[in-house]
């Protein structure tokens, strides 16, 4: 299910508030796209295998619309998670 337009604007405002306005670090482009969904980066203690469940870092991803460079932004740091999720 795609993100609601209201949620997208909330994410964009939070990024701008934190100063995430610089051009792409790879190609210098000024135009970006908010990927329409969330990413969950799992936190593992071992390099082998893949952990299902457990701790993760919920994030959003911004893509440069010229070269495709992806930047991830943690929702907790941006203040966009419910309180109980930011304390885990």
Give me the secondary-structure topology:
Elements: H1 5-17, E1 32-34, E2 39-42, E3 56-64, E4 70-74, H2 83-86
Antiparallel strand pairs: 1-3, 2-3, 3-4
Question: What's a concise summary of this model?
Answer:
The chain has 88 residues and is α+β, with helices and mostly antiparallel strands. It has two helices and four strands; from the N terminus they run H-E-E-E-E-H.
Comma- or semicolon-separated keywords:
2 helices; 4 strands; globular; 4-stranded antiparallel β-sheet; alpha+beta; 88 residues
Q: How would you describe this protein?
A:
- This protein has helices at residues 5-17, 83-86, and strands at 32-34, 39-42, 56-64, 70-74.
- With 88 residues, it is α+β, with helices and mostly antiparallel strands.
- Strands 1, 2, 3 and 4 form a 4-stranded antiparallel sheet that branches.
- A hairpin with a 5-residue loop joins β3 and β4 (70-74).
- The protein is globular and about 35 Å long.
- 5% of the residues are buried.
- The model has no long low-confidence stretch (mean pLDDT 91).
| Helix proportion | 10-25%
H-E string: HEEEEH
N-to-C CA distance: 25 Å
Structural class: alpha+beta
Number of helices: 2
Mean model confidence by pLDDT: 91
Give the low-confidence spans.
none
Global morphology: globular
How is the biggest beta sheet arranged? 4 strands, antiparallel
Strand content: 15-25%
Number of domains: 1
How many individual β-strands?
Answer: 4
Rg, Cα atoms, Å: 14 Å
């Amino acid at each position: 299910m795609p993100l609601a337009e209201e949620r997208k604007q909330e994410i964009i405002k939070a990024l701008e508030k934190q100063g995430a306005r610089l051009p792409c670090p790879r190609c210098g482009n000024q135009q970006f796209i908010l990927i329409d969904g969330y990413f969950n980066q799992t936190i593992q203690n071992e390099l082998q295998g893949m952990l299902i469940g457990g701790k993760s870092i919920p994030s959003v991803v911004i893509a440069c619309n010229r070269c495709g460079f992806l930047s991830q932004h943690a929702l907790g740091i941006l203040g966009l998670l419910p309180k109980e999720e930011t304390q885990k």
